[in-house]
Amino acid sequence: xxxxxxxxxxxxxxxxxxxxxxxxxxxxxxxxxxxxxxxxxxxxxxxxxxxxxxxxxxxxxxxxxxxxxxxxxxxxxxxxxxxxxxxxxxxxxxxxxxxxxxxxxxxxxxxxxxxxxxxxxxxxxxxxxxxxxxxxxxxxxxxxxxxxxxxxxxxxxxxxxxxxxxxxxxxxxxxxxxxxxxxxxxxxxxxxxxxxxxxxxxxxxxxxxxxxxxxxxxxxxxxxxxxxxxxxxxxxxxxxxxxxxxxxxxxxxxxxxxxxxxxxxxxxxxxxxxxxxxxxxxxxxxxxxxxxxxxxxxxxxxxxxxxxxxxxxxxxxxxxxxxxxxxxxxxxxxxxxxxx
Length: 340
What we know:
By secondary structure, the chain is α/β, with parallel strands linked by helices. The protein has 2 domains: 2-228, Rossmann fold (3-Layer(aba) Sandwich); 245-339, Rossmann fold. The protein is 35% helix and 18% strand. The chain contains 11 helices and 14 strands. The strands form 3 sheets. A 7-stranded parallel β-sheet has the order 4-3-2-5-6-7-9. A 4-stranded parallel β-sheet has the order 13-12-11-14, sandwiched between helices. Helix 3 (59-73) packs parallel to helix 4 (89-97), helix 5 runs parallel beside helix 6 and helix 9 (257-268) packs across helix 10 (280-289). The longest helix is centred in the N-terminal third of the chain and has 18 residues, at 24-41.
């Protein structure tokens, strides 16, 4: 289970550690740098790879700048573009001390920016983090567009920039990431519409704040492993009836594939028997793909609701009505009647 917390809950959980002088930023930067090294370590010629950090003025930019400095010390060429008038001074000093270059976005022409990105193998998006809003400033949009146009892979630092950490609301210009390294706790916005589509694969970096997080998360999302564990497993003594019978009123001349997909999904989900009520041409397609399906032919020309009796299909534990049915199909009204 992936548990996501709203922005304030994460800030409150970090506060005791920051008050105690724990170097959370350096821990986050170290984890980020190690991840990039590991990523490049599986690729041929990793020593020649180049990383570009998009660094905002706040702590998120500091994470990225410190990570760039650490990458420099690992032999990976890492530089940064400062997207605002201010920079995180400690992070910027660390990068310069490691031999890196901090470009200012306002000083780069479009041609210079494109040239910089052409030589870049990986972008670290560290413009804004947990305090970001779903609004990108006008001065950043040419940079975001250039990264998108050059199709440079992106890793989001904590969360993609210009995504609300609590609600998931995202700016239309926000950069989609292949991966997001999120620090301390998964932000709820990474699991909600908007942020979820931009985050890519989410990797949680433990900063030791777990004991200070709320007992109940703001958002919970099943992993693939969680979903697999919830699926029923056939037992030795099971039969097709004990595993459940699903009846589908699905598929039509206009949308025959819907019945094939619905029947295949039902069978693969573990139903003991799957029945399909459909016209003969649709059943032919279904049985060609899934010969174990039990077909119930819908006579052509039966246009009245009463001509379709779902109860005549035999034993049924679950009824699905709708995939691939036009609005005037008699199976629709018959299904509604069955539910009354």
